[in-house]
């Protein structure tokens, strides 16, 4: 297929790479230079989203936030200016469900389909082509794009109409944030009590406390590797969507709110760019103890 890919950062670059490897014709654009790795494999660098939309039949966006998707689709020389009837726009970024419905209806007016298809699984899942993909939009468009999704991910679900994919992603981000917070509290507790946090993590991996977060983010915490991965500022964006949604739905999400405050505290410490497992660091400040330090009363 002729596929456009806009946004070639931490996630977009490996995802576009898998589509090239699968034999698709890729038309690439980013406001930064297109990575050589992708043109070296046979992808074509374009000078605008408009050019991408003129050349490709399915146009994927993978940019940071709602305003970036709006700029990529409807800005000057954006995708909308290059679209013609029958093409499909697929936004795989994680953005606001309400704005998504507006973007979909603007794209539909041009005779094109729109899918919101955000992902979970992080940079690890993007590289391994094992992302979870949650989709909103018409079934026929979903079936058309599914072979591409299958090259980037494993668990691929059409949840409902436009916006429902993004709503699912917000729900996902609530679970991920609160689980990171729980894992950080547990490992810090264990370490300050004098147990080896690496052994504690290993011991917990088979039981009810087991999770992908304990596995991946727990390991990052123990190795103190806070290079992103998924940046705290992006998770703040996602929890903002959850909390703004909660307000308009008359819903209370108390632990989402408190976890957002911890991310805010990380950002105040200069940590907006840390991986979200860096939430541990603010708990360490509060507990006056770092994982890896000798525990008080410890003998090694
Ligand atoms: P990133 O910042 O690494 O990459 C985004 C890319 O988009 C950058 O290369 C940037 O130059 C480009 N860009 C920004 N505005 C643009 C525009 N108007 N036109 C063209 N290109 C533009 O971000 P990322 O980590 O790859 O995340 C992308 C999206 O995926 C976000 O919505 C994020 O929430 C979501 N996501 C990320 C992860 C993760 O682990 N990193 C996991 C799941 C979902």
UniProtKB/TrEMBL annotation:
Keywords: NAD, Oxidoreductase
Gene3D superfamilies tied to this protein: N-(1-d-carboxylethyl)-l-norvaline Dehydrogenase, domain 2, NAD(P)-binding Rossmann-like Domain
Residue ranges constituting the 3-hydroxyisobutyrate dehydrogenase-like NAD-binding domain according to the UniProt record: 163-282
Pfam family for this entry, one: NAD_binding_2
Active-site residues from the entry: 169
GO terms classed as biological process: glyoxylate metabolic process; organic acid catabolic process
Annotated ranges, domain 6-phosphogluconate dehydrogenase NADP-binding: 2-160
GO molecular function, one term: NAD binding
Family: Belongs to the HIBADH-related family.
NCBIfam families registered for this protein in UniProt: PRK15059.1, tartro_sem_red
PANTHER family associated with the record: 3-HYDROXYISOBUTYRATE DEHYDROGENASE-LIKE 1, MITOCHONDRIAL-RELATED
Protein name: 2-hydroxy-3-oxopropionate reductase
Origin species: Skermanella aerolata
């Amino acid at each position: 297929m002729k596929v456009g890919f806009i946004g070639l950062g931490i996630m977009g670059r490996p995802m576009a790479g898998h589509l090239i490897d699968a034999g698709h014709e890729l038309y690439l654009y980013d406001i930064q230079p297109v990575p050589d790795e992708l043109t070296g494999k046979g992808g074509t660098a374009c000078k605008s989203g408009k050019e991408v939309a003129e050349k490709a039949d399915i146009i994927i966006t993978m940019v940071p936030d709602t305003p970036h998707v709006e700029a990529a689709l409807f800005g000057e020389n954006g995708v909308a200016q290059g679209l013609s009837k029958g093409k499909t726009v697929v936004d795989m970024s994680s953005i606001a469900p309400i704005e998504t419905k507006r973007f979909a209806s603007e794209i539909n007016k041009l005779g094109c389909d729109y899918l919101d298809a955000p992902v979970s699984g992080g940079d690890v899942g993007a590289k391994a082509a094992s992302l979870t993909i949650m989709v909103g939009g018409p079934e026929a468009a979903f079936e058309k794009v599914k072979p591409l999704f299958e090259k980037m991910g494993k668990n691929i679900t059409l949840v409902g109409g436009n916006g429902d994919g993004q709503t699912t992603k917000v729900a996902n981000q609530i679970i991920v944030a609160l689980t990171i917070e729980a894992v950080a509290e547990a490992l810090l507790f264990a370490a300050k009590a004098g147990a080896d946090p690496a052994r504690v993590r290993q011991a917990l991996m088979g039981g009810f406390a087991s999770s992908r977060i304990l596995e991946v983010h727990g390991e990052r915490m123990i190795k103190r590797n806070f290079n992103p991965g998924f940046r705290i500022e992006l998770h703040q964006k996602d929890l903002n969507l959850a909390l703004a949604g909660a307000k308009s739905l008359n819903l209370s999400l108390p632990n989402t709110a408190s976890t957002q405050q911890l991310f805010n505290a990380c950002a105040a410490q200069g940590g907006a760019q840390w991986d979200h497992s860096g939430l541990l660091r603010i708990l360490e400040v509060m507990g006056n103890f770092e994982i890896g330090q000798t525990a008080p009363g410890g003998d090694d």
